[in-house]
Design goal:
By secondary structure, the protein is mostly beta strands. Helices cover 11% and strands 39% of the residues.
């Protein structure tokens, strides 16, 4: 650029001093060409020019659909399996739209999702730990999680000679898994009478793990644990939950948003209903699909149900000493909601299944 400017200055000087027309014309032509070069040079200039960085090796990104595999971290003292569904985007009355999650807690009140846990399709789950393995049953499938290695096996089908619905797990004195369940109905609502029938009997049974099957095979125990006649008093019955205080065995039965309590001195015995005043329901219109735990350290029962509120379906807990009186509404506290546990607004959380995370 400096050389071009010097040339223009000298050329202009020659024009001024020369009287030769041809010389003047040639000089003007040269000046015009130099002006063009200057204009092009200015157009190519940019303020604060940036020196391009040296080339870097290309970063290979994973495909957009590649799953992120993170080992689950199950560390809480207590576990809860539940299913969830986004009521804003799907039909949550269809169990096929439910996803099973696993949460953990150190006090039974404050819950968080297990980090790295991948939800799986399923509905009305239950969870139990035996030794180093956590077992989650839902919709005919079993997931086994191995605590020492933080590895969850892929879901697989478990076998039983009955249509097991709404499973609830217990470990018997021989260390075998026992499933309490409601007998299902092909193509119908197992909680209610078949269409056209005003009354019927709902039977709740149990099935015991086949030795060596690691939770994949069961044989049905003889007899019924509970038989409930549907009609005037009970319009539905479903979702059994088995638990013990170390002396007796208790079985919750769900009747819509209400719950009755049944008890037996034997795990596989015949359970009798506790006549809780004033109407026989221990929980009345305060939540259904229950689970419970007896805290031997302080002699308290923790009862969990799900119930519909303004934010959708939530899971609540009530703490009580016994079953002598019906639980009142003010006994309940919400412990899991869709938004509160990180699943988002409009997500229903339902069907709590409780377990102690200890061998």
């Amino acid at each position: 650029m400096k050389k071009i400017l010097i040339f223009l200055f000298l050329a202009a000087l020659l024009v001024a001093c020369s009287g030769n027309a041809e010389g003047i014309s040639a000089t003007l032509t040269a000046i015009s060409a130099a002006q063009t070069q200057i204009a092009e040079a200015f157009q190519s200039l940019t303020p604060n020019p940036t020196i391009p960085p040296p080339p870097q090796p290309a970063t290979i990104l994973p495909p957009a659909t590649a799953p992120v595999s993170v080992a689950p971290a199950v560390t809480g003292a207590y576990l809860m399996a539940f299913h969830a569904c986004n009521a804003f985007t799907t039909d949550c009355n269809d169990p096929r739209n439910h996803q099973v999650y696993l949460a953990q807690s150190d006090d039974g009140q404050n819950w968080s999702l297990v980090p790295g846990w991948q939800p799986v399709p399923g509905s009305v789950p239950d969870v139990i730990r035996r030794g180093d393995t956590i077992y989650i049953y839902a919709s005919g499938n079993l997931i086994r999680y191995h605590v020492s290695t933080n590895i969850a096996d892929p879901p697989l089908r478990y076998e039983a000679p009955a249509m097991i619905t709404d499973p609830s797990l217990f470990v018997d004195e021989q260390g075998r898994l026992v499933i309490f369940f409601m007998h299902g109905i092909m193509g119908g609502d197992p909680a209610q009478c078949p269409p056209g029938e005003m009354t019927c009997t709902k039977n709740f049974g149990s099935a015991t793990e086949v030795e060596g099957s690691d939770g994949t095979r069961f044989t049905v125990d003889d007899g019924a644990r509970v038989a409930i006649t549907l009609g005037t008093v009970y319009r539905s019955a479903s979702d059994p939950d088995i638990f013990s205080d170390g002396r007796d065995y208790f079985l919750y039965i769900s009747h819509g948003s209400s719950v009755t309590v049944w008890t037996s001195p034997e795990l596989r015995g015949t359970y009798k209903q506790l006549n809780v005043p004033p109407m026989g329901f221990f929980i009345l219109n305060s939540g259904g699909v229950p689970s419970a735990y007896y805290n031997a350290g302080n002699g308290e029962f923790w009862s969990y149900t799900h119930v519909h509120q303004q934010v959708g379906m939530v899971i609540r807990r009530a703490v009580h000493k016994d079953f002598t009186m019906q639980l009142q509404e003010n006994a309940w506290q919400t412990v899991i909601s869709g938004e509160g546990i990180g699943l988002g607004q409009g997500v229903n959380v339902e069907s709590p299944g409780f377990a102690v995370n200890a061998p």
